[in-house]
From TrEMBL:
Signal peptide range in chain numbering: 1-24
Catalytic activity: L-threonyl-[protein] + ATP = O-phospho-L-threonyl-[protein] + ADP + H(+); L-seryl-[protein] + ATP = O-phospho-L-seryl-[protein] + ADP + H(+)
Protein's name in the database: Receptor-like serine/threonine-protein kinase
One GO cellular component term noted in the UniProt record for this chain: membrane
Amino acid sequence: MLLPCHVLLGLLLLLSLHTPASYAAATDTVSPGHSLAGSDRLVSNNSKFALGFFKPGNESSSYTNHNSYLGIWFNKVSKLTPLWTANGENPVVDPTSPELAISGDGNLAILDHATKSIIWSTRANITTNDTIAVLLNNGNLVLRSSSNSSNIFWQSFDYPTDTLFAGAKIGWDKVTGLNRRLVSRKSSVDQAPGIFSLELGLNGEGHLLWNSTVAYWSSGDWNGRYFGLAPEMIGDVMPNFTFVHNDQEAYFTYTLYDDTAIVHAGLDVFGIGFVGMWLEGNQEWFKNYRQPVVHCDVYAVCGPFTICDDNKDLFCDCMKGFSVRSPKDWELDDQTGGCIRNTPLSCGSSKDRTSLTDKFYPMQSIRLPNNAENVQAATSGDECSQVCLSNCSCTAYSYVKDGCSIWHDELYNVKQLSDASSDRNGGVLYIRLAAKELPSSERKKNGNISGFAIGATTATLFLMILLLILWRRKGKWFAHTLQKPESGIGVVAFRYINLQRATKAFSEKLGGGSFGSVFKGYLSNSTIAVKRLDGAYQGEKQFRAEVNSIGIIQHINLVKLIGFCCEGDNRLLVYEYMPNRSLDVCLFEANGIVLDWTTRYQVAIGVARGLAYLHNSCRDCIIHCDIKPENILLDASYVPKIADFGMAKILGREFSRAMTTMRGTIGYMAPEWISGTVVTSKVDVYSYGMVLFEIISGRRNSSHECFRDGDYSFFFPMQVARKLLNGDIGSLVDASLKGDMNLVEVERACRIACWCIQDNEFDRPTMAEVVQALEGLLELDMPPLPRLLSAITGGSHSVIPQYFDSV
Ligand SMILES: *[C@@H]1O[C@H](CO)[C@@H](O)[C@H](O)[C@H]1NC(C)=O
Ligand SMILES: *[C@@H]1O[C@H](CO)[C@@H](O)[C@H](O)[C@H]1NC(C)=O
Ligand SMILES: *[C@@H]1O[C@H](CO)[C@@H](O)[C@H](O)[C@H]1NC(C)=O
Ligand SMILES: *[C@@H]1O[C@H](CO)[C@@H](O)[C@H](O)[C@H]1NC(C)=O
Ligand SMILES: *[C@@H]1O[C@H](CO)[C@@H](O)[C@H](O)[C@H]1NC(C)=O
Ligand SMILES: *[C@@H]1O[C@H](CO)[C@@H](O)[C@H](O)[C@H]1NC(C)=O
Ligand SMILES: *[C@@H]1O[C@H](CO)[C@@H](O)[C@H](O)[C@H]1NC(C)=O
Ligand SMILES: *[C@@H]1O[C@H](CO)[C@@H](O)[C@H](O)[C@H]1NC(C)=O
């Protein structure tokens, strides 16, 4: 494809701006005569990767970094992102000026001229006297013979740090025993190896490990397309993954569909595996995929004697009686050092035993640490605490109905749970502290016992009466709303057990919606659809607040939220049931039903009305963000109802993550999702336009017959745009209608759809305007070809967008 002249000129200008004089002579090779020093760079021939000395971190941060490293990064990414580091363990310390050169033995080495020492070397067995080091287009630094490029002695792909380059392997060379594994870096500044790693087991299963011993995430088995426990891997935005397992090798690798894409896959300093892409518009990395999803599911991410809480921005905190071991490391995102005791345990060593015996401090709703020792002998909480006190290495105990557990030495992996009652692993952890750390309990003990007891009894009695009253009130209210869920007085809070019963233990699955699965359920007088949310980690209070605000939104074209359930980690939403399933089933599945044109047009208007209501009429503007046929349900008389609105609010920050890892939605996503500008309600307009095309054609825009042999001119929106100019609109409509249609409406719908998918959101109409246009109250101009489409097909149209002539 030829680029227009002005684009080429622009590119050249850009390139020259990005190329300061010092690396005008940028090369990709270190050879005996050409070493690298100071701010010199090697740049791969395709300009994608650069190699040189760098200082990680932030000049303006309170800790000045005196260490520099030899590394590889993306040449064009403005935020320095190290992908590979040679000398993580042996940084070059200021003020020495290191040099990268081919040393006397033919290896590539970092030399320190001040001390005349070798800081790092490839240490390979060299069999020729003509080695050179080349930074390849895929980011691999290879040491090879200059005369024979396939004679390779060493390559950086065999010694990865925390990043898996496209085309590099992770896993085993069974012949040489080489195990390529990713190891996290210690902190955002310290490039030394950290405590987390990503390894492929010899059985071919991937694991994230803490200290090479504790696995906290497993990929599941490879099923030919993806690892069983990581199906998100094959989403549309994700690269092409491959897994190879034979006698010689067991490895995992990926390639990019587009070699120029800037994709970063690796393991971050918090032990989370991720895949991210660079958003040029935002100048920001955007993580499409991460495992584990939340920080506290990384084993011991906060180090010993800490408590991890994902609901807090700073998710690591010290346990009571402990302080951060190294505040500097904490600030640089390395919390694995954890916390240390403020006051040493007395451990019964003192003469005055009564006042100085160690005490226990209860921590509620806790995921208990691993490696508990079960003490069969102790049959009460008191006995359990005595067992712990009697051994100096014991640091905590917990007593639950299945017995007494005690822990020795350091406590790892303690997590704050939002609601312990429902979580089987949750419990109360009693941590052992020096008596001095708990002065208040001393005072309580010495207080007036009888007075305290009387006070307590009165308080209990009062509380019981209050509870009784509340319970009776609540019971009445509950019964009331349950009897008439259609009356619209708020939403019903269901018990989990009742929903379990209503759905027959979640046995009748209606669909695998975007954020969880949907099940059919039966209440005494109605049928319901129950959506079980996956990975919704939002706190209970916020979830309830959002559900209530969504619950009051009612419109004939929006699915009605009847109720919810929020117990422990369970988050469920209960909706009215739609007998005619969803639009995708009615349009794309050959099941005998063909929606006639009138119905299709009414569906189009209904969906537009529902969206217009969401955008304008209710109190806060709600952007749906995920309009697609699967989210448009049809009731008994084929009235369309939009489902899943308000998910952005209910899921909070999980939402954007979920959005981008989802499969199949990409065809409906407006370009600004990818370019990373702020999204507005116009993203829904774009998606609506895409759906409208599908309503007209009865086919998926992205179906394979639309891209015959890579020919994009068969892409349906493209055909529509062309036929609008050339006539013969009728041939665009679903052939199964056999010509039975209203041509005026067809042309209207085609024009509207084309206007809706304009690249520039300001060119798209609002949903309210779409409704008016569909109703024939607004006349539309001929739409210009959307730029995205014209770029694909190589056409060029420069109609100035101006879509309305008022009637
Ligand atoms: C570098 O790229 C240019 C084109 O951009 C090509 O002509 C040249 O052969 C390449 N050099 C090497 C060593 O691959
Ligand atoms: C450096 O750190 C400061 C404050 O710590 C922050 O405001 C600034 O954005 C950081 N700069 C970069 C380039 O990360
Ligand atoms: C280099 O060769 C020696 C002797 O042949 C051998 O013992 C050693 O393992 C080799 N080292 C590497 C890295 O292959
Ligand atoms: C490299 O070794 C070859 C013989 O193996 C010799 O002819 C050549 O001169 C050597 N080159 C250099 C640069 O030392
Ligand atoms: C180049 O190196 C490869 C690998 O060491 C070897 O198999 C091949 O024979 C060499 N080719 C020449 C022309 O020396
Ligand atoms: C990690 O493992 C090593 C050896 O397996 C052990 O010596 C070390 O104490 C462990 N580190 C921590 C923080 O437990
Ligand atoms: C994915 O990668 C494999 C191996 O690297 C390759 O054979 C296959 O063609 C790739 N698929 C696509 C769609 O690029
Ligand atoms: C304390 O517990 C540790 C670990 O179970 C054990 O090795 C040690 O013998 C115990 N010490 C005493 C005095 O019981």
